Amino acid sequence: MEEERKVLVTGGAGFIGSHLVDELIKLGKKVIVLDDLSGGFRENINPQAEFIEGSVTNKELVEKTFKENKIDFVFHFAAYAAEGLSHFIRKFNYENNLIGSINLINESIKNKVKCFVFASSIAVYGKNQLPMKEETIPLPEDPYGIAKYAIEQDLVAAYKMFGLNYIIYRMHNIYGPRQHIGDKYRNVIGIFMNQIMQNKPITIFGDGGQTRAFTHINDIAPTIAKSIFERTAYNEVFNLGSDEPYSVRLLAQKVISVMKNGEKHAINNEQERKEVVHAYCDHEKAKKILNYQANISLEEGLKDMAEWVKKVGIRKTTKFENIEIEENLPPSWKK
Fold it and tell me: Which one is predicted more confidently, 333 or 50?
């Protein structure tokens, strides 16, 4: 009897990864989750999935996982995605986000994986013309974006040399249930909601004029899961997210509105960070090839997330303990 073919999802206990696992199981796939629980939670893992606790940086564990299973598809969604913090944790960023990815790519090549689906980011574009399109030449401005773009380039090289198919998703500002709201370095909507529940002022860096397009998880997870069945998507790069950008200042007001039913809440403007001010994308390619459509409005999505957040309650704010460079670190991150 032929060994059962499986799908490996790294980061499958995390926010985006766990939703992806759910969608793959709906499609009838047998799923293995590899996650070190550094940013995810056991309760996020679908009980129908097999769980292996460990890191993609553990080369021996990655090799063992592939050796003991017939893996047809890899969805690589494990990363430490704190873009702004990546300037101050450069070694950690590259070891986790770059070297860990290479461990997976090597084994995928050796084991003839059919397609490697990679969670990249619009961070690869840096400060670029708007809206950012897939053919835009990436100009990443932080180590997180640099690592993501390096992996993209490595996947292209692996395809040309070894025939490893890939699909790359440059996602942006995804939010929704299961997001780690206790991480103060990333996930702005989760940060805002956690601060409100603690009756702390919302923290905005600068004047809040930065613009992003915020995307509910339910608008992207089904598309990503189904894309392995769409051969025209193989060896392509796709922007994935919402079309409509909002300022962080307006976002804060909308979050306050859904969390406090129209009551006011204090906002604390801190020193601005060195970050890309405006970042949003064109999604015509995903719409054409993947039949992608972002249907959930920001208001509707925030209400959905607020309901979940109020159920799970306050999450303790975690501090990253291994800051490598203290210079220019935002004051609130030093606390």
Answer: 50
Cis amide bond preceding 131, omega within 30: yes
Per-residue pLDDT tens over the stretch 212-253? 999 999 999 999 999 999 999 999 999 999 999 999 999 999
Strands in the chain per DSSP E: 5-10, 31-35, 50-53, 70-76, 115-121, 166-171, 174-175, 202-205, 211-212, 215-216, 236-240, 246-247, 267-270, 278-279
Give the pair of three-digit tokens for residue 128: 């670029």
Q: Find the catalytic residue in 144, 149, 169, 175.
A: 144
Q: How far apart are CA 256 and CA 325, in angstroms?
A: 34
Tokens for 138, please give them.
């990436």
pLDDT value of residue 180: 92
Chain position carrying tokens 């198919």: 165
Neighbours of 90 (CB within 10 A): 16
Cα separation, 194 vs 180, in Å, equals: 10
Closest CA to 243 of 303, 290, 296: 296
Structure tokens at 190: 């989760």
Written as one letter, the residue type at 238 is F
Active site residue 144: yes
Phi, psi (rounded to 5 degrees) for 39: -135, 0
